[in-house]
Amino acid sequence: MAGSLDRDAYLRLLEHGNEESLAAFLMRLAASQGNDLQEETLLIIRRLAKECWWEKKDFGELLLCLGMPASSWAVDAEPSTATDPLSGTSTTVQSEIPPPPDDAAEESKTLSFVVEPSAGSALGGTTVSWMRGPIPIELRFGNRHAAPLRGGQFLAPYHEGAEDVDVIAVFEDGVKVCYASAFSYYTPGVLEAMTPATGGTMGGMQVEVTTSDLGAEICQVVLGEKECQLLGRPSRTRAAFLCPPCEEEGAVPLLVVASNSNRVLAKAAFVYADTMCFGAVGTSVEVAEDATQARKGKGVMDGVCLSAQPIRRTATGHFFQIRVDEMGPKNMRGLALGVAQLQPQDLLNAKRPRPQEATGLSRAWLLGYDRGGALFIEPSASAAKLPTGSWRPVTDLK
After folding, report:
1. Greater confidence, 248 or 184?
2. Which residues pair with 183 in a beta bridge?
3. CA distance linking residue 384 with residue 40, whole number of Å
4. Which pLDDT belongs to residue 247?
5. Which residue, among 371, 385, 373, has the nearest Cα to 333 in the 3D structure?
6. In 10 A of CB 241, how many CB atoms?
7. Predicted confidence band of residue 397 (pLDDT cuts 50, 70, 90)
8. In 3-state terms, what secondary structure has residue 49?
9. Are 228 and 242 in contact (CB under 8 A)?
10. Dist CA 270 CA 253 (whole Å)
11. Could you check whether 115-186 and 191-273 share the same CATH topology?
12. Rounded-to-integer distance, Cα 70 and Cα 99, Å
């Protein structure tokens, strides 16, 4: 039967099928035993299909690779062979592979890699654990030997560049088995950009990080000691996330992890600055959210908003950030942002600035407003007009 999942169907696929049809057969076989075919499981099955196709594994060995008790299936009586890619010699692999130990029988529906983790840095030094039956006395990754450690662990050797390599196991009885493309080398990741690299301690700001090619999708971002909420679907080189809140100001490390275990760790990559609030504001301005939010009311004038405290210096310099949530009608003059050295004459009292617009402050550096293009205003100088196409506050801020 075309839909059979027995030994005969498997042998027919080895003779007349291909790697793709064999992988589909293994997926149906795994699903019939209640396996949850998640992305990681499908990757294991595809690797196993390639391994079975080239090594012509017998059905009993296949079942054990899938973690299924071979005793409940018809096992081939004839041995199969495995080829050592280094020497080109063939080694007999007996089908009478010992069944899984009793403590593993209950987990027979769980698939596993040959070694864990199944990926590591091309620089070498990744500690891997053997995951299949008897521990081999020798393990090779491609054409290089892995250093044996204790308890079935090995130290992966270095490799030239990012690539999938065969894992070759040599057992105490002389049997050699080649597991095709069972280990993936990746080039260690590097942080290329982080925008912005400074934010308020309240968090909630969208940040984007760019890395070198990690070899797999980014699956986790940790800022300081807090895992961040990812936005959208990350790629192998980029991820957007929400900056978590932080109790203290200062620089924190960034950790970016890909699904193949490749990672980027950058110390002092992001700087938290204390959240500022508004102090003196014009009569047509209303403040809310503990004075961290200001809204312009009716009228064109009296819309100056001053922070309640001076800008604080951080490791990367002086920093402040304004988020524009909503813009008013297009007939308004637009928005101007800047800094000022306040003088006594600039304040009417602690709650009211004296000037009706920011250009009236004694020493202020401003960028914005709108007269067919944004203006740059500095003390003791005439306003310089920015090119119309570069920024128009009244139309570009929406």
Report:
1. 184
2. 165
3. 58
4. 83
5. 371
6. 23
7. low
8. helix
9. yes
10. 7
11. yes
12. 7
| Gap between the Cα atoms of 293 and 301, Å rounded | 19
Burial of 265 (0-12, 13-18, 19+ CB in 10 A): middle
Task: Find where tokens 């928005």 sit.
Answer: 335
Cα separation, 35 vs 28, in Å, equals 10
Determine the Cα–Cα distance for residues 245 and 241; give it in Å rounded to an integer.
13
Taking the C-alpha atoms of residue 192 and residue 111, their distance in angstroms, rounded to an integer, is 36
Distance in angstroms (rounded) separating the CA atoms of residues 249 and 64: 54
Q: Which residue has the higher pLDDT, 102 or 211?
A: 211
- The answer to whether 157 and 124 have CB atoms below 8 angstroms apart is yes
Encode pLDDT of 197-233 as tens digits. Answer: 888 887 888 999 999 999 999 999 999 999 999 999 9
Contacts of 112-118 with CB under 8 Å at 24 or more apart are 112/44, 112/67, 113/44, 113/182, 114/167, 114/169, 114/179, 114/182, 114/183, 115/139, 115/154, 115/167, 115/182, 115/183, 117/261, 118/182, 118/183, 118/184
Domain 115-186 belongs to what architecture?
A: Sandwich (2.60)
Distance CA 89, CA 8 (A): 28
Domain limits, the chain: 7-105, 115-186, 191-273, 278-396
Q: Coil, strand, or helix at residue 21?
A: helix
| CATH 1.10.287.500, applies to 191-273 | no
Question: How far is it, in rounded angstroms, from Cα 10 to Cα 59?
Answer: 7
> Where do we find the tokens 């204390």?
274
> 168-187 burial string, b = 16+ CB within 10 Å, else e?
bbbbeeeebbbbbebbbbbb
- The overall average pLDDT reported for the chain is 77
The phi, psi pair for 18, rounded to 5°, reads: -150, -175
294: pLDDT strictly greater than 60: yes
Q: State pTM to two decimals.
A: 0.50
